[in-house]
Amino acid sequence: MKFTTAATADGLRLLTSLLVIGSAASMSSYRERRLANVTVAPENDNTQFHHFLAHNMTRTCSADNHATPFNNQIRGVNLGSWMVLEPWITPSMFYQFLGGDETNTAMDMYSFCEILGPEEGNKQLRRHWDTWVTEELIEELAQSGAVNSLRLPVGDWMYKPYGPYIGCTDGALDYVDDLLDWAHARGLTVLFDIHGVKGSQNGFDNSGQSQDFEWTSALNTEPAGLVTFQHWGIRSAAWMGEFDRETIEYTSTNYENIEHALETIQEIVNMYKGHPAVLGLEPVNEPWQYTPIDELKQYYWEGYLIVKKDAPYWKYIMHDSFRFDVGIWGGFMAGCPDRALDTHIYQAWQDPASRISFYNNACAQKSAIAKMEAAFGPVIVGEWSLATDNCAMWLNGFNDNLSGFPRLPCKFVKCADPYMGTEQPGTPVDPGKPMQGPYGTGMSGPSFGLCPVDRDWMKERNIETGTDWMRAPPEAPRHLDATDEVMTALARKKISAFSGIGHGFYFWNFRTELDEPQWSYMLALERGWISKGNLNDDRILHACHKEDEGLFVCMSTRQTESATKGGMKYALGVDGVNSTYVDSLSGDALFDAADIVFSKFWEDHKGEGATCDFGGAAQLQEFNKTYDDDDDYYKDDDAHYFTKEEARTSLLILTTFGILVGSCFGFLMAMAFNEKFSNKVSRSSVVRRVTRRFTSHSGSNVRYTEIPEHQY
C-alpha cells in the first residue's frame, strides 16, 4: 500500500485536522484506502489507471481518452420518490400522519421509518416499491421514443443501513436489480444518484432527513392544542460537519460521514460494475450552497478514483452545489475522462412573470451551459420541470411552505386515489375534513378532499406583460385556457437549451401522484407538451431562434492529436466517409480539418441527439449573431393570443364592414354612371317608401316637392 506524502495545502489541511482530533486511523481510511489496489505510478502524486493518469495533488488527469465516448445526448427522467420518499410526489405515503402531534408525525424518509418502526415501515415501503415503479411504466417510457436513460435516486442507507433505516428498507436492492434488468432489456441506461447521505447534505426532505427541524407548539399563540413546527428558518446540513448559522460557515468537518459516503460509492461499484445497463454514478445530489467547496471537491475526487478503479466505463456526474460558476468549476478535474457537471434548473421558485420572460429565461441557459462546457467539460441538467409556480402540494415540505409562497393563488383538484391501493393507512383523503395539522410556517395541504396543483395559463391580450395571467383565477375557463400552448412552447425551448448545447438532461419527475403534468414527464407526453420521439423534432432544434444571442459551432479543442483523430474517424465513420487520410494529418492541419468535420457532423446530427464531444476532442464555441428586425421570431404558440370569441367577433365586424363599404361604393357608382339603373332605382317602391322628399338642383336654387300620399 502506498500513500502520497506530497505536502499540498489540501493534504496538510486535511492531515492537521485529523491529527487534532487524534484520528490517524481515520486518515488512513479516508485517503489511503482510496488508493488501495490501484496501480500507483512512480511519482507519489500520481495514480495510474488503464487509460489515463490521475494527478492527486492537482486533481487533474493526463491522456484524456474517454473509456466511453460521450457522443450521444442524454434524454432521461428521474425515478423520484421510489427509493427516497418525497411527500410532495407520493403524498399517499404521508396522509396517515395528518392530524398527528410531535410523537407520531413523519415528514421524510428518516422519520417515516422512525415513527412506523422497521416492521410496519418495511411493509408499507414494499407495497410502495411494488406499485410506484413497474415494468409496465418502464416499457411505456421506452416506447415513447423520448427517453433513453433513467436517473435513480438512492439513499446511502440502502447499502450501509443505520439508525431507523435498519430493517425498514430491507429488500430495496432486489427492486433495484429488477429495474436494471427492465432497463437493459429496453435499451435504457441507469444513472445511480446518491440522493441522501448520512447527516443530510442540504437539510431538505429529499436528502432523507430534514435537518434542524423544531416543534413550536408550546410557543405559538394560537388556540390550545394546535400543533406547529418550523424548518425553513433554521435549516442546516450536517453531512460535511457542524454548520454555524451566524457565520454561515462550517466550524468542523465530519470525516466519519464523508467516509460513510465513500464506502457507499464502493458498495455501489462492487454490486453493479458488471451490469450493462449502468451509465454511471452521481456521488451526492444537491449538496447545499454553503458546503465547503474544497472539501466537496476532494470528496468528488476520492469518489472518482473509486469508480475508475473498478468501473472504468462508468460516467461520473457531479452536482454543482447550486453554484454553476465557471470560476469554481472551470479546470476542475481537467483532462479526467468520463466526468460531467450536473446542474438543476427550475423556474418554479421564480417570481410570477409573463410567458415571454419564462421563454427567454429557458433559452438563456444555452449560453451559460456553453460557457461551462468550454471551461469545465460536459454539462448535464440533472433536474428540471415545466412548473412556473410553487403551487404543487408539499413542494416545500410536508404541510409547510416557504415564506411568501406560493406567489399566486393555486388551482385545486380532487386529491388522487392512492396508487398502491386503499389498504394504505390514511387514504383516501377524507373529503369532509378541512386542512389538518401539524402546521408549518407556510400553508399547503389537502382540504375537503381537494389538493393544490399548478395554476393554468390564460390567453392574454399582451403576452409581453403577463398581467392577464397573473390577475386571472388559477383555473382557466375552457375557452380561455392557454396552458397547452404555453407549456408546449416552454418544453421545446427548455429541451433545445438543455440538450441542444449540453450533453442532455433528466426531467424531474417521471410521474407524480397528483395531476401535475408540469412535474410529470409521462403526463406531459400524454398532453402533447413533450413530443414522443422528440430526439428528432425540428421544432425543438429551432425553438430558441428568437432568444439565441449567439451562434454555436462545434470546434476542436486543439489539445491531443490522438483524441482528435479518434473523434474525426468516429464522425466520418458514422457518415460513411473514408477516414484514412486522417492519419497523415498533424498539427494545425489536423486541427483545422477537425474543425470542419466536427462542426458539420454536429450540425447534421444534433437533432438526433449527437453531442459536441468526440471523446473530449471538441467543444462548443459561441459566436455573435445578429438577427434582422423582420425575423419572424414568434410563431404558432408564441403569437399574441385573443379569445376565440374575440377573434370571431373581430372577423365578423371586419367582414360586415367590408361588405357594406363595397356595396355602398358599387351602388353609388351605378347610380352615377348607369342612367337606366338610376331611373329604375328612383321609381322603385322601396325608394318611394323610405324617401319622403327629394331634392332637385337648379343652379343655386333648391326646390322641394311633396310626394303624393296615394303613392305610398
Ordered list of secondary-structure elements with their pairings:
Blueprint: H1 9-20, H2 24-30, E1 46-48, E2 53-55, E3 60-62, E4 74-78, H3 109-132, H4 135-143, E5 149-155, H5 172-185, E6 189-196, E7 214-215, E8 229-230, E9 243-244, E10 249-250, H6 255-272, E11 278-282, H7 293-310, E12 315-319, H8 326-329, E13 339-345, H9 355-375, E14 379-384, E15 411-414, E16 450-453, H10 467-471, H11 483-500, E17 504-507, H12 521-527, H13 538-541, E18 550-556, H14 561-574, H15 587-605, E19 618-624, H16 644-673, H17 675-683, H18 685-690, E20 693-698, E21 701-706
Parallel strand pairs: 4-5, 4-17, 5-6, 6-11, 11-12, 12-13, 13-14
Antiparallel strand pairs: 1-2, 2-3, 7-8, 9-10, 15-16, 18-19, 20-21
Helix pairs in contact: 6-7, 9-11, 14-15, 16-17
Signal peptide: 1-26
Family: Belongs to the glycosyl hydrolase 5 (cellulase A) family.
Protein name: Glycoside hydrolase family 5 domain-containing protein
What number of domains? 4
Q: Whole-number average pLDDT?
A: 83
Kindly report the CATH topology of the largest domain. Answer: TIM Barrel
Order of strands across the widest beta sheet? 14-13-12-11-6-5-4-17
First and last CA, distance: 123 Å
Oligomer: single chain
Which second-level CATH architecture of the largest domain applies?
Alpha-Beta Barrel
Radius of gyration (CA) equals 33 Å
Strand content: 5-15%
Structural category: alpha/beta
How many DSSP-defined strands?
21
Low-confidence stretches: 1-31, 33-43, 626-647, 690-712
Separate helix tally: 18
Which range best describes the helical content: under 10%, 10-25%, 25-40%, 40-55%, 55-70% or over 70%?
A: 25-40%
CATH C-level class of the largest domain: Alpha Beta
Task: Report the major sheet.
Answer: 8 strands, parallel
Overall morphology = globular
Q: What is the fourth-level CATH superfamily of the largest domain? A: Glycosidases
Protein name: Glycoside hydrolase family 5 domain-containing protein
GO cellular component, one term: extracellular region
Transmembrane segments: 651-673
Keywords: Glycosidase, Hydrolase, Membrane, Signal, Transmembrane, Transmembrane helix
